[in-house]
């Protein structure tokens, strides 16, 4: 079996050397591979067909010619010249000075069969020199990856022997014109690699390895926010075959992949060093997962939730894995804190909190909406200074944005993006355009993540640095029932071997930044302030005056409200210092929460098996951590208010 090769660049070539995106193996029937042009996205999409009469447009490349010697060399005159290597002179042929050249180009007919100017790179005593030479003629050697050529001035065996081992070069700007849908290897370098199924950013292509089998993309992985013991030499190797690379979009500089299960994980392991080191890392990762599950099981046992452990023990293999993952992902710090303090839960803002807010509002900075947007701030010296201070923070990439998309901004499917969401994302992208170093996090419901990622990808991330963009699933906690005397609780199941869970709320979602190691990344980046806001028309995302105001007061938390109305916590706009965010991650047990009474259908394990339960009373509790619950972690002196009047 041999890989299928074809090219429209040299259809009649007796010895083609085209390397193109190909099937992994040749089937028994003719299979031709093409990339069909999608006008709506300027992308080339993989398409295959059986029994075609002629190959459709292929993606062809000039791999080694483009990869290996698109480099700058300094000649003796000190000028900088650029060349690309197309072959190496291997042996002398005959007695008239002809030589054989081993091809390393996709265009041998043009490079070795067409007379014209070429260059020879030779080495003499360790010194490299490049000289111009004319190619007179050339002919292909059938069955070999070589050509026999005649060069002007090389007329004898002795003269031919002197250039054996030399590289034959062309000018770096000498590129044959490609057909629509074709591209060169260097054009792949720098492309973003996207996982088609989820929209996850995998990494960036750094080079292409040309092998006798399939060409291999070398991809530098996206390590932001990921736990890596040693990422200095980390890379992912992805075969450049049609089963894996399904779309190449030159305009957006990205390609989509559908790798087989385990390929990315295998690559991660294979770049860690020796097999002993890889086994050690695998063992550590497995051990860590086992320890996390063991800790979770111990906590559940201490909480007298043994029915969950019984379900885990009795679950079939597939459900056991899923349930174990669900159990291990529970934030038990928040869950235990809430269950142990149900009598202290808050209903909206407590009376003390309302008094504190009233006091803070009296001392709040009052500003018109026009001034906030900078339309009149130049007239007010204080506003101008605050704005300049905020601009300095933003331009020096000392600020990050966390956008929380609540139920009001339901996404639905990709064709039903909410107008508010679409407009807000466009505005955000416009504001962050060109700000390469500013991190951006979006937290949304599980079922919305893929659609949001696709929307961002389809819009080229609105110019944001996608290596510093995260789309996270909102946190969830188990729903539980209360005993009749309110003295005990029981975690519930949505279906057999699946826990009933509910969103944790924006206050609890902040813990995701710590759990996902994003907070550590922010600290490493030198981020000083974090804006946490809901997606609505009252949020001033990246507003320099707001940032400058909070920074000038050295406040731990800054809250912006409109007309003195704090609201119910579904719409919010806060700026939190990284110093205080680090404190929150350590003192999560101090976060304020609500225990919301609700009715949910659930299932329960009995002696007769699993049975459906539809409670008549609202005896179930859903834990909710509102955003203003984080104010329990700081003193009034650390909080400042901005009251926008309109």
TrEMBL record:
SUPFAM superfamilies the record matches: Nucleotide-diphospho-sugar transferases, PRC-barrel domain, Translation proteins
Pfam families attached to this UniProt entry: PRC_RimM (PF24986), RimM (PF01782)
Gene Ontology molecular function, alphabetical: ribosome binding; UDP-N-acetylglucosamine diphosphorylase activity
Domain Ribosome maturation factor RimM PRC barrel as annotated: residue spans: 187-263
Organism: Rhynchospora pubera
Source superkingdom: Eukaryota
Protein name: Ribosome maturation factor RimM
Domain RimM N-terminal: 86-172
